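Hi R.,

Here's the chain you asked about this morning:
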Amino acid sequence: MTISAITKVSEQLCFGGKQIRFTHTSTALSCDMQFSVFLPPQAEKQAVPALYWLSGLTCTDENFSAKAGAQRIAAELGIALIMPDTSPRGDGVPDDADGAYDFGLGAGFYINATREPFAKHYQMYDYIVDELPQLLEAALPLSDKRAISGHSMGGHGALVIGLRNPQRYSSISAFSPICNPVNCPWGIKAFSGYLGDDKSQWQQYDASLLLSGAESPLPLLVDQGTADSFYPEQLRTDSLITAAKQITAPAEIRLQAGYDHSYYFIASFIEQHLRFHARYLFD
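And here is the predicted structure, written out as tokens:
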């Protein structure tokens, strides 16, 4: 894979570290992409491990950096935060014909599309797993120690990518993830549009199915709010809980009473997630 150069768009000092936004031309996605990075102060002297954060429907690379309040703890722990966009964008990138929020731009679902006209650009799985880490570890003071986390659609992406690539990550966490997309309206719409009607192709992107068949799953932490308007119909957390019990996986799946789907929920528990990942990133 050809790795392009990255161009800095903006930089701010934050808790002694640097909050930076970059752009580059993606080979996997065949378009220009933006992403954000927080480099902790320790990166001035040594390569640091990274947590990849995958955001949800309608989000960009900036939602987590502006709303979650993660930089303070990341700076203390010495963990970089990598925040990619949620889908390919730009002229020529196809969108939902009706501009729906849950398909097309802002809704890449972190899979590799096989159905036209989406197959050329919507290769988010390859972008997150291969292209972006190669790009960043060559250009920035990052080690090859990685963890992965995300919210909602991004929680789905984090679970799927971590479960399918245990050799590439040390741990997985998620907030309000779409746990069983082959059986929920969001997932059925996205998978039908990106992958077509062959449901055997959908299964490789379903976290509950992947976890139930995992031989050596990574440490896993999931938080789900009980006041979330998308729980349980869209998120189907019970399917993930059942899968974890079937294989006695090292998984902690917590139902948090009264919390909803918002970034207020994420901000309330992000410190616990970062400290969870730190146990494995620095092992």
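One quick note: The chain has a mean pLDDT of 96.

Cheers,
M.
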